[in-house]
Design a protein that fits this description.
2 helices, mainly alpha
Length: 60
Amino acid sequence: MKELLGHAHIGVTATVYAHVRLRLQRQAIDLLGHTLSNLDGTAAEPDDGDDPPLYAAPVR
């Protein structure tokens, strides 16, 4: 991937794109939470995506 993006080191690729992975994880968690909370008739507020998920795997 780093070659396709023109990065000399994988660390650059990981640093630049780590926030995308965290945002996608947060969106998936929010969607799941929203879906599950609607099963009992309550609605969950979507997260703004600024904070990483509570159980996110570290990006290396």
